[in-house]
Design goal:
The complex is a heterodimer of chains A (111) and B (522).
Chain A: H1 7-27, H2 31-53, H3 68-98
Helix pairs in contact in A: 1-2, 2-3
Chain B: H1 2-17, H2 19-37, H3 44-60, E1 75-77, E2 82-84, H4 86-109, H5 117-135, H6 140-158, H7 165-196, H8 201-214, H9 221-239, H10 247-254, H11 257-264, H12 266-282, H13 292-320, H14 327-352, H15 357-392, H16 408-422, H17 428-443, H18 446-472, H19 488-505, H20 508-518
Antiparallel strand pairs in B: 1-2
Helix pairs in contact in B: 2-3, 2-5, 3-4, 4-5, 4-12, 4-15, 4-20, 5-6, 5-12, 6-7, 7-9, 7-10, 8-13, 9-12, 10-14, 11-15, 12-14, 13-14, 13-18, 14-15, 14-17, 14-18, 15-16, 15-17, 15-19, 15-20, 16-18, 16-19, 17-18, 17-19
Classes of the chains: A mainly alpha (111), B mainly alpha (522).
Chain lengths: 111, 522
C-alpha cells in the first residue's frame, strides 16, 4: 500500500531544513533568529548523517556510514550546544552595549 | 588477547605522539585551578602558560628524530583519526612557537589585565589545541571539531575588550558569520561522507580514485562538486578568502590588536594546513594509482577553484588596503592579501600532483616556508602597532606622524617588517615570495604567477605610505609619545625583527626543514 521509506526521504527533509536555515540566515536581522537558522542547518546535516548510517534504511546492504555517522551526530550536538552558549553570551554582550539585538545596528566598523 | 595488546600498544603510542596537545590540555586545567590556589598571583597565569607552551613546543619540535612523510608513510594515531607526520609536526611547531612568543607579548602589552589573564589564556590555549588538531586531522570529524575548537574561543577573544562597543560588534559579526559558515561546511561534510561512504580521508581518497578509474561518476559529480564547495566555504571563512572575507577587517578593527595578531598568523596557518590535508589527502597525495583521464576533471575543478579564490583574495586585499586610516584595518586587508598568496602553492600542488608528485611536495614546502617568514614579519608589524597603541592611545596612521624623531628603533623594526611584507630583498618576505612563485612556475600556473607579481607591486604603495608617515611627516602630537628600543617592549620587537632579516639571507636551514616536513627529497 505504502512504498517503504528510503534514505532519499530523509535527505529531502534535510534539504528542506537546510534551505529553511539558509533563508533564516539571509533574511533575519535579529541575532537570535540567525542563531536559530544556524541550528537548523546543523540539524539538517545531522539528519543526513543519520540517514546515511541507518541499517533500517539500507536493508539490503551495509549503510555507507556504519557507525561514523551516528558518532558524528553526537559530537555535533555537543558542539552546537557549546557554540550556542558562546553565541548567546556574545549576543547578550552586544545587547548590553547597543541596546538591541539587531545585527544591522552594529555598523560602527566599516571601510 | 593479542588484539587487546595491540590496541593498548596503539593507544600508548598515540598518546605519546599526542604529547604536545596533552600538555596543553593539562596546562588549561592547571591554569583554571591556579586561580583558586593562588588568587593573588598577578603574573602566575602568564608564567604557567609560557611553561606549558615551551614544554609543548619541546615535545612537538623537530629535534626528536625524523618525521614520517605526509601521505606516504604518515603514522595513523588514534586508529586513523589523526596522523603523525611532517606536515602536522611542522605546523604544530610553528603554532606552539608562536604561542610561546605570544604569551610573552601579552605580558608586555598588558592587554588582558592581570585579573582577566587567566580567562584570556585558557581560551587561547583551547584554541591552540583546536589548531593542533586541525593540522593533523585525517578524518573529517576531527577536521570539523578542530575547526570549531579553534573558532569558538576566537569569537570570545574578539569580544574580550569588555568596555569597548566596537569589540562587542566585532565579536557579534565574527560569531554569526563563523557559526553560519561552520553549518554550511558540516552540511557539505555530511554529503561528501555519504557519497564516498566514509569520513576517513585516506579511505575517501581510495573511493574517489575508484570512481575516477571507472571514469563514470554515475551522476554523483553534482553532489561531489556541491559538497566540496560547501566544505570550502568553511575553510575560506577561516582563511578570510574572498568572498568570505568581510568579517576580517571589522574584527581586526574592533578587537584588540593582540587578538588580531593571533587571528592573522596562526589561525591562517592552521586553516592552510587543514586545506592542504583535505585537498591533497582526497587526491591521495599522488601516491595512489590513478588513471590520468579519470582524475582530470577533479584536478581541473580544484585548480580552477583554488586559483580563482587565491587571485580574487589577493587582489581584493591589496586594493582595499588603499585608503585605510586605521592601521589595524589596513593590516587586516594585508592579511587577506597574504591569505591569497598562501593559497597559490596549494593550487600549484594540485596542478602538478599527478604529473610529478615530488613537485607537489615542493609546493607544500614553499607554503610551509612562507608561513614561517609570515609569522615573524606579521607578528613584528602587529607588535609594533600594539605598543604604539599603548603609547598613543590611538590606531590612526596619521597620529604616528614623525615617530622617527622620538622612537627611531621602533620605526626601523616596523619598516623592516613592512618591507618584508611587500617582499623586498634581502628580507624574509622576499625569500618566501620567491619560493611561492617558484612553485607557481613549476605548476605551470602562469596566469596566477602574473597576478601575484602585479599584486606584489600593488602592495608596495600602501605599506610604504605607513613608513612615509612615520619618517617624513610633521608630528601632529605634542608631546610625541615614545617607545624606546632599549626597553622590554623594544627588545621584544627587535627579537621578532632579527629573523625577518636572517631568514632573508640564511633561508636555507629553515627551507630544508620545510622540505623535509613536506617530504621533498632535498
Amino acid at each position: 500500500m505504502f512504498s517503504p521509506i528510503t534514505p532519499a526521504h530523509y535527505l529531502f527533509v534535510g534539504i528542506v531544513l537546510f534551505v529553511t536555515g539558509m533563508i533564516c540566515l539571509l533574511t533575519k536581522r535579529n541575532i537570535i533568529a540567525i542563531l536559530i537558522g544556524v541550528e537548523l542547518i546543523l540539524n539538517a546535516a545531522n539528519i543526513n548523517f543519520i540517514a546515511f548510517s541507518s541499517p533500517v534504511l539500507f536493508p539490503k546492504r551495509v549503510p555507507p556510514l556504519v557507525l561514523d555517522g551516528q558518532i558524528f551526530v553526537l559530537f555535533v550536538m555537543i558542539l552546537a550546544a557549546a557554540e550556542a552558549a558562546v553565541a548567546l553570551a556574545i549576543a547578550l554582550h552586544f545587547y548590553s552595549r547597543f541596546g538591541t539585538v539587531d545585527v544591522d545596528q552594529g555598523d560602527e566598523l566599516k571601510g | 588477547m593479542i588484539d587487546l595488546h595491540r590496541t593498548l600498544d596503539h593507544l600508548s603510542f598515540s598518546l605519546s605522539a599526542w604529547g604536545p596537545e596533552l600538555v596543553l590540555c593539562a596546562g588549561i586545567v592547571v591554569l583554571l585551578l591556579s586561580r583558586m590556589v593562588f588568587p593573588l598571583g598577578r603574573y602566575l597565569p602568564f608564567v604557567i602558560s609560557l611553561i606549558v607552551c615551551c614544554l609543548a613546543l619541546f615535545l612537538a619540535g623537530p629535534w626528536n628524530g625524523t618525521w614520517p612523510i605526509v601521505g606516504e608513510n604518515s603514522v595513523p594515531i588514534f586508529s586513523g583519526l589523526l596522523a603523525w607526520d611532517g606536515l602536522g609536526a611542522f605546523l604544530k611547531t610553528l603554532i606552539l612557537g608562536f604561542s610561546a612568543l605570544f604569551v610573552v607579548f601579552l605580558w608586555l602589552s598588558g592587554f588582558p589585565k592581570p585579573a582577566h589573564a587567566t580567562d584570556f589564556l585558557v581560551l587561547y590555549l583551547g584554541a591552540v589545541v583546536g589548531m593542533c588538531v586541525m593540522v593533523s586531522a585525517e578524518h573529517l570529524l576531527l577536521a570539523f571539531l578542530g575547526m570549531e575548537m579553534a573558532s569558538v574561543p576566537s569569537y570570545v577573544l574578539a569580544g574580550f575588550d569588555r568596555r569597548a562597543r566596537q569589540s562587542a560588534e566585532a565579536a557579534m559579526k565574527f560569531a554569526v558569520f563563523g557559526a553560519a559558515s561552520a553549518g554550511v561546511m558540516l552540511y557539505g561534510i555530511s554529503l561528501l561522507g555519504g557519497v564516498l561512504g566514509t569520513f576517513s580521508i585516506p579511505q575517501m581518497a581510495d573511493q574517489l580514485m575508484l570512481l575516477a578509474a571507472s571514469g563514470d561518476y554515475h551522476g554523483q559529480a553534482v553532489i561531489l562538486v556541491l559538497s566540496s564547495l560547501m566544505i570550502l566555504v568553511g575553510l575560506a571563512f577561516k582563511l578570510s578568502a574572498v568572498p568570505f572575507h568581510f568579517w576580517l577587517p571589522d574584527v581586526f578593527e574592533g578587537a584588540a590588536a593582540e587578538v588580531g595578531t593571533f587571528l592573522s598568523v596562526v589561525s591562517k596557518a592552521a586553516a592552510l594546513g587543514l586545506l592542504t590535508r583535505l585537498v591533497l589527502g582526497l587526491l591521495g597525495y599522488g601516491v595512489l594509482e590513478a588513471t590520468n583521464a579519470g582524475v582530470l576533471p577533479i584536478v581541473t575543478f580544484l585548480v580552477v577553484t583554488l586559483s580563482l579564490l587565491s587571485a580574487a583574495t589577493c587582489t581584493y586585499g591589496n586594493l582595499a588596503a588603499y585608503g585605510q586610516n586605521n592601521i589595524k584595518r589596513l593590516l587586516g586587508y594585508s592579511t587577506i592579501a597574504h591569505a591569497g598568496y598562501m593559497l597559490m602553492p596549494i593550487a600549484a600542488a594540485v596542478a602538478v600532483l599527478f604529473r610529478d608528485a615530488s613537485l607537489a611536495r615542493w609546493a607544500i614546502a614553499t607554503l610551509l616556508f612562507y608561513l614561517v617568514t609570515y609569522l615573524f614579519m606579521n607578528f613584528a608589524a602587529f607588535a609594533t602597532v600594539t605598543f604604539l597603541r599603548n603609547a598613543f592611545r590611538s590606531e590612526t596612521i596619521a597620529d604616528f606622524a614623525g615617530l622617527i624623531r622620538t622612537s627611531p628603533g621602533v620605526v626601523v623594526c616596523m619598516s623592516l617588517a613592512l618591507f618584508s611584507l611587500v617582499g623586498l630583498p634581502p628580507l624574509a618576505g622576499f625569500a618566501g615570495k620567491f619560493a611561492i612563485f617558484s612553485s607557481l612556475v613549476f605548476g605551470g600556473l602562469w596566469s596566477l604567477f602574473v597576478i601575484a607579481a602585479i599584486n606584489t607591486v600593488l602592495s608596495l604603495f600602501y605599506y610604504v605610505r605607513i613608513i612615509k608617515t612615520m619618517v617624513f611627516d610633521v608630528p601632529v602630537r605634542d608631546p610625541l609619545p615614545q617607545v624606546r628600543l632599549a626597553s622590554p617592549k623594544g627588545i621584544f620587537l627587535a627579537v621578532l625583527t632579527v629573523p625577518v632579516i636572517v631568514l632573508g639571507i640564511l633561508w636555507q636551514p629553515v627551507f630544508m626543514l620545510a622540505c623535509r616536513a613536506a617530504g621533498y627529497p632535498w
